[in-house]
Structures are given as structure tokens and as C-alpha cells.
Amino acid sequence: MSYIALLGAVAPVFVIIAAGCGLRRLRWLTAEADRSLLRVGVNFLYPCLIADTIIGNRTLGRLENVLVPPLVGFGTVVLGFAVAALVAKMLRLPPAAARSFSFTTGLYNYGYLPIPLVQAFYDPDTLGVLFTHNLGVEIALWTVGIWILSGTSGRGAWRELLNVPIVAIAASALLNFAGAHAWLPGFVAQAMHMLGQSAIPLALLLTGATLADLMQEENAAGNPRSTIAANALRLGVLPALFLLLACALPVSPALERILIIQAAMPAAMIPIILAKHYGADSATALRIVLSTTLLGLLTIPLWLRLGFWLTGS
């Protein structure tokens, strides 16, 4: 695929995020509505998308596509944390800024950005592998990530693993092995499909609205060296390492595709909130998230094209 074609596939995601930002500025999407919409999206619509994708998924009928993707998800996030922490030490950042830098730069956007791209380029079975992969990402986030961000063990953070989407992934995988697609009523499956399709657009709108709020609350000016270094790592060095893993690891074709998509991703957005909660530098997290997301519109198609070429996808 050409760069322009790939850019056209990536652009709608950013258009919806920009729409959410605009709706917040117009006050059509109010901050008061966020909590209820987020609760519905995360705890109901997103699990419907997970169940719709995993139940009846032939690729996840193979045990290797259930067990190996979480290990790869965990390993790639920890790799990102390690590389970012090394660079933070080289930059001699203050402790709070260094923790935010390492955590935010090391954690790629593993949910609401890659999901529509996987849907655009691949079949639904591959999307199911993304969900199992993200189990490992969540474990790395709430264990190693919180340890880095807080500077302590973060003993209570593991409880965040017991959330509705994670339970939905595990339950759907079990139902898939049990052959639930054969006895699940058609009208139930269709309802789940319709509800699941609304999960990502709603999440992207809320992402844009949240970014609009954060840009007003936080001072985005700061150390340019850390922002430049974060972009070089998140959009340059780490994607190259991920593509090397995609080519070198003996993984299934579906997981190889997931690695290509995740290699191109900017920083995840959750570090902005977590940095503030755990006493790190939320302004550093905000700068990294904003800059890698905006620049990602241009770099994502480049890395996707290289990944497709290297793996013959």
C-alpha cells in the first residue's frame, strides 16, 4: 500500500479524536457526561466488542494464540520501559520527570488507536489476538509500570487487573473454546455486534474531549530535550525494535500482524492520569502523549508500510 493510502486509513481515527476535542470546546460534550459515558463504554460497549470478536474466532481456537500473545504484550511493554528508563538516566531528568518519561514513553497505545487499524487492515480473527495480547500489556502496566511510576511496589495496583474488559476477554476465550458460537442465539450475537461497533467511536470522542481538558489544565511547555527524546524513542527506536521482533520471533501470522500495528503506535494516554495519581510529573506525560499522538499521524503510515514490506503482509 502507498503512504497516501495508509495515511487515509489512519486519518479517520485522528478526525474522531479532533471531533471530540471540538465537541468539548463547543460544550456539546460536557465534562459532567464523561463519567457515565466512560462507564458505559468501558464496562458495556467494549466488552460487547470483545465478545463479538472472540466468540467464534477460529484463530483463538489454537492455544498458541491464547497463551503466547500475552507474553509478547508483557515483554514489549517491559522492553519499552527499560529503554526509556535508560534514556531518562542519560538525560539526568529530575526524579518525578524521569518516572513519567520512562512510564509514558515505554507504554504504547494498545487499545483505542490500534483497534480501528486492525479492523481496517485485517480480519476479525486478528482483532481477537489483539485482545489476548493486551492481557499481557495490562499486567505489565499495573505491575512493572506502576513500580516505575510511583517509585514503590504499588501493591494495590494489581487490583486494577480485575476490570470488566479483562474479565470479558477471559470469559469470551473460554466460551470460544466451549463452542458458544454454535448455540448462542443469533439475535444475541447480532445485538453484541451492533453494540460493540459503537465502542471505539465513543472512546475516541471521549479521548479528544479529555485531551482538550488537559491542554487547558496543564502547562504544556517544559524541557524540550525530554520531549524530543521521547518522540525519537516512541516513534523511532522502539518501532524498529518491534519490527525486528516481528521478523525474528517464531510467532503466528496473526500475532506478527499485531506487532506491526503496535510498533507504529504513539504513547498511550492513560499515563497522564496515572502520573498525577502517583505523584509523578503529569506535565511531562502530557507533552509526550500530545506530541507523539500528533506526530504519529505522519509516522504511523511509514512504520506500517515498512512492517508490511518486511513481513510480506
**Largest beta sheet, briefly?**
none
CATH class: Mainly Alpha
List SSEs in N-to-C order.
Answer: HHHHHHHHHHHHHH
- Overall geometric form: globular
Q: Roughly how much helix do the residues carry, as a percent range?
A: over 70%
Q: What CATH architecture would you give? A: Up-down Bundle
How is the CATH topology named? Na+/H+ antiporter like fold
> Please, how many helices?
14
SS strand fraction = under 5%
Distance between the termini: 10 Å
Radius of gyration: 19 Å
Number of strands: 0
**Poorly predicted residue ranges:** none
Structural class: mainly alpha
Count of domains: 1
Q: How confident is the prediction overall: mean pLDDT?
A: 87
3D architecture notes:
There is one protein chain. With 313 residues, the chain is mainly alpha-helical. It has one domain: Na+/H+ antiporter like fold, CATH 1.20.1530.20. The protein is built from 14 helices and no strands. It has helices at 3-25, 31-54, 64-91, 95-106, 114-121, 124-150, 164-177, 180-183, 186-197, 199-217, 224-248, 253-263, 270-277, 282-311. It is globular, with a radius of gyration of 19 Å. The chain starts with a helix and ends with a helix. The relative contact order is 0.18.
Quick overview of this protein structure:
The protein has helices at about 5-25, 30-55, 65-90, 95-105, 115-120, 125-150, 165-175, 180-185, 185-195, 200-215, 225-250, 255-265, 270-275, 280-310. With about 325 residues, the protein is an all-alpha fold.
